[in-house]
Amino acid sequence: MTESLHPAVSPAWLSSHLGERDLRVIDATWYLPTLHRDARGEFCQAHIPGAVFFDIDAIADQRTPLPHMLPDAESFAAAVGALGIAGGDRVVVYGGRHLVASARVWWTFRAFGHDNVAVLDGGLPRWREEGRPVESGEPRPQACRFHARYRSELAADLDRVRQTLSGQGEQVVDARSHGRFVGAEPEPRPGVRSGHIPGSFNLPYDHLFGPDGALLPVEGLRGAFEAIGLDLHRPAIASCGSGVTAAVLAFGLFLLGRDHTAVYDGSWAEWGGRTDTPIAR
Length: 281
What we know:
Blueprint: E1 8-9, H1 11-17, E2 23-27, H2 39-45, E3 52-53, H3 73-82, E4 90-94, H4 102-111, E5 117-120, H5 123-129, E6 155-156, H6 158-162, E7 171-174, H7 178-182, E8 201-202, H8 218-227, E9 236-239, H9 246-255, E10 262-264, H10 267-271
Parallel strand pairs: 1-5, 2-3, 2-4, 4-5, 6-10, 7-8, 7-9, 9-10
Helix pairs in contact: 4-9
């Protein structure tokens, strides 16, 4: 029987389990286009041994202008199977910093019915700081069969977020910086208005981490959410700029027992990019 993963595993745990038959490792490193960095190129230069690269911009719905929106279940299953991941595998995802975008890929697997997935706490930086090995090159995994089942309750669309405006339904918590939330900093995407969804809360995603880049302990996570006024007994939708760092908040809430927190997939790229959605500052 396949062992169930803890949602956040340490480099020591991963190191001791690397190479196990049913364990797959994914590099999900992603950067905003404005940073002009090549995540796949960096992966080819150095990655955790045996890892494959998950490109959130490629494994996405290519029919929409919105960035890295979820693909359909069939497309996701084909892409993941091509990475050598089978339906019964345990999956550990890591990234470059603060679970960006490893939490996004963690959430994506869950949104398609695969719960035996975890993130590497501290990501590749912590792995390398501890002197653990890396390898270079582009892997060529053997394709596997993966079945995906879309769980719509974990992905909020525009209409569902509109329903929160009455203040009676789900809460919205925004992972962007405070400056972007209040409209004091410009949005990185052209044509996107500044501000936030009326009634939403703001918790910048990096507030869930300590100085070493590792996740806060559970009580620290609880304190971060409670400090902004979020009611942990009510359902929530996590949002951000384009649905990536929102998943960090969803992951934090998952660790607090809120395992059905949804991510607003379109996030501010959709809401702020329209003219028919209200904005607060």
